[in-house]
Amino acid sequence: MRIKAKAFGQEAFEFAEGVDRLEAPGDVIEALHRVVARFGFEGLFVGGIRADPNQSVTDLVIAAQCPAEFLEVYASRDYVRFDPTLQRALRSARPFEWTASRYDKEEPRLVGLVQLLADFRFSRGFIVPIHGPGGCEAGVGLAGEDIDLTTKTKPSIHLMALYAFERIRQLASAKFEEKSPLTRREREVLAWSAQGKSASEIGEILNVDKRTVDEHAQTALRKLGATNRTQAVALAIRYRLFEV
User: Fold this and answer.
1) What's the CATH number where 76 sits?
2) Burial level of 155, CB count in 10 A (0-12/13-18/19+)?
């Protein structure tokens, strides 16, 4: 068994070396998906952890490798609001396994979620929370049905997920250096977003309409090279574009 464990560790190191040569976030996600697929994971999700009640799945997901139909149904039924796995990820400091069969059978809203996961063979999985200075800010989620998740495979998967996420951070940083700095108003919008304020609430605070807030947010996303507001907030915090 020592040889097998060593092989898993070697694979993680080789993965890291390969990812370092990639220059696009999408390529990093695809590389991670190819590796974890060998452990039986069919779905891969990278995104932010819910920051406020007004954020949708579209706002949170940075990248995913799964059937488009799955995300469409998941989003349309607003499962992000009460998915037990995401709720646990907010509280967890360490990666953890999850199984849909253990969801509360007495909770009516979870019946449809359990069926959706079963339909797409996503009934089991592994979550790697990503923590920043302010706490849990994002995560890498893996899902499948017949997965090879043991005490020997978990450390390797954990390491590869973290390394892939950090490589995406590096690529985003490189893009940021080429972008124009944010205006004072754009920084204010992201700062209030970081406090969990909705666009409407931010508009009231800044004495502008919601449409103007959304325009500032979209401009900030473009300058930062972010794909959604959650990622833009995370990048702005990392670059210390406003006080937290």
Assistant:
1) 3.30.450.80
2) middle
**Is the pTM of the predicted complex or chain greater than 0.90?**
no
* pLDDT tens, position by position, 156-197: 899 899 889 888 877 866 655 555 578 889 999 998 988 888
| CA dist., res. 131 & res. 173, Å (int) | 17
Q: How many residues does the chain have?
A: 244
Residue 215: CATH number of its domain? 1.10.10.10
Backbone dihedral region of 22: left (phi > 0), alpha (psi from -120 to 50 degrees) or beta? beta
Q: Pseudo-torsion of CA 33, 39, 44, 45, nearest 10°?
A: -120
Query: What is the rounded CA–CA span in Å between residue 26 and residue 28?
Result: 5
Angle between helices 210-224 and 199-206 (to 10 degrees): 110
Q: Which two tokens stand for residue 214?
A: 């959304």
Give the DSSP letter of residue 101: G
| b/e map 221-244, b = 16+ CB within 10 Å | bebbbbbbbbbbbbbbbbeebbee
C-alpha to C-alpha distance for 221 and 233, rounded to whole angstroms: 9
Residue 126 and residue 119 in contact, taking contact as beta carbons nearer than 8 Å: no
Does residue 244 sit within a domain? no
